[in-house]
């Protein structure tokens, strides 16, 4: 049979058959010999040992479309990056790090702001910053189901990873999509105004119509050190239209005169907030001693 690994714990892999059954499987020794580790998200072939007890053996791992580093998962179609619109205030520096990580791993992104109690002008500001960068921006409130139907349609027929910091409503949103998930939802710490970590392992949840969703641990920081400073510009998609337009070849878009990106910032075509984030990240990466 063919299925998808939805969870892996202590050498056991739980394989969903695409309908309603989940089989507890072991991976054959041949994978260890080839140093291939099955990942959550892998499409696999498996033999059923007991239909009654729903056990089996994984016999083959089908080719992967992609493989994420963090979280370790394969065959992801898209990422839904969820931040709170308020309580806690959105950390846009961290959001930009998430976006760079997904660009690095070539995963399409949609940005969603939850806990929707912002004034219209604040929604417009956030939508403007990231809309100019080419990202789809959505707003929702899990507690009163505002905007959740549109997001449910976005997920249909795809495997989606939910990413974002703790305490922004990722697990609550998953509970809404899949009540059987029974995810532990965490309250935001009154003392530090930051969510407690509630997701402890990577797991895909089947929400019907060929759709799988993965909740991930909430990150309070995100390392982008694998990217060279001079390559950083390629992970800001709003800079792409200006490629080759700067006065100097190899322009870093920092202090150089005749920089097309800086001109786009002045004209409003590129968000000033995003550009200032780029400058900060560039300096951060430039200061890393790599050798």
**Fraction in beta strands:** 15-25%
Question: Unreliable segments (pLDDT under 50, ≥5 consecutive)?
Answer: 183-199
Shape: globular
Class by alpha and beta content: alpha/beta
Overall pLDDT? 85
How many strand units? 13
Pattern of helices and strands: EEEHEEEEEHEHEHEHEEHH
Q: Report the radius of gyration as a whole number of Å.
A: 21 Å
Helix content: 10-25%
Sheet of most strands:
6 strands, mixed
Between the first and last Cα atoms, what is the distance in angstroms? 49 Å
- Biggest β-sheet: strands ordered side by side in the sheet: 10-9-8-11-13-12
Q: Helical region count?
A: 7
Task: Walk me through the structure.
With 291 residues, the chain is α/β, with parallel strands linked by helices. It has a six-stranded mixed beta sheet, sandwiched between helices. A five-stranded mixed barrel has the order 1-2-3-5-4. It has a two-stranded antiparallel ribbon with strand order 6-7. About 6% of the residues have low confidence. The longest helix has 15 residues.
């Amino acid at each position: 049979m063919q299925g998808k690994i939805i969870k892996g714990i202590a050498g056991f892999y739980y394989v969903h058959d695409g309908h309603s059954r989940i089989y507890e499987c072991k991976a054959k020794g041949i994978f260890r010999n080839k140093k291939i580790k099955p990942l959550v998200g892998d499409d696999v072939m498996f033999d059923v040992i007991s239909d009654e007890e729903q056990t089996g053996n994984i016999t083959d791992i089908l080719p992967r479309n992609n493989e994420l580093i963090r979280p370790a998962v394969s065959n992801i179609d898209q990422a839904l990056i969820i931040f709170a619109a308020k309580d806690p205030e959105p950390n846009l520096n961290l959001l930009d790090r998430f976006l760079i990580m997904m660009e690095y791993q070539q995963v399409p992104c949609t940005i969603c702001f939850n806990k929707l109690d912002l004034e219209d002008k604040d929604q417009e500001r956030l939508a403007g910053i990231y809309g100019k960068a080419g990202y789809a921006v959505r707003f929702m409130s899990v507690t009163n189901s505002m905007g959740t139907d549109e997001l449910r349609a976005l997920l249909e027929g795809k495997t989606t990873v939910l990413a974002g910091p703790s305490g922004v409503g990722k697990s609550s949103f998953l509970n809404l999509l899949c009540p059987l998930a029974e995810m532990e939802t965490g309250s935001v710490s009154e003392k530090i105004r930051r969510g407690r970590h509630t997701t402890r392992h990577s797991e895909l949840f089947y929400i019907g119509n060929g759709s799988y969703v993965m909740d991930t641990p909430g990150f309070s920081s995100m390392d982008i050190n694998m990217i060279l400073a001079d390559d950083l510009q390629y992970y800001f998609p709003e800079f792409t239209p200006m490629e080759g337009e700067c006065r100097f070849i190899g322009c870093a878009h920092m202090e150089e005169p005749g920089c097309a990106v800086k001109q786009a910032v002045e004209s409003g075509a590129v968000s000033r907030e995003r550009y200032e984030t780029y400058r900060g990240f560039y300096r951060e990466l430039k200061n890393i001693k790599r050798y």
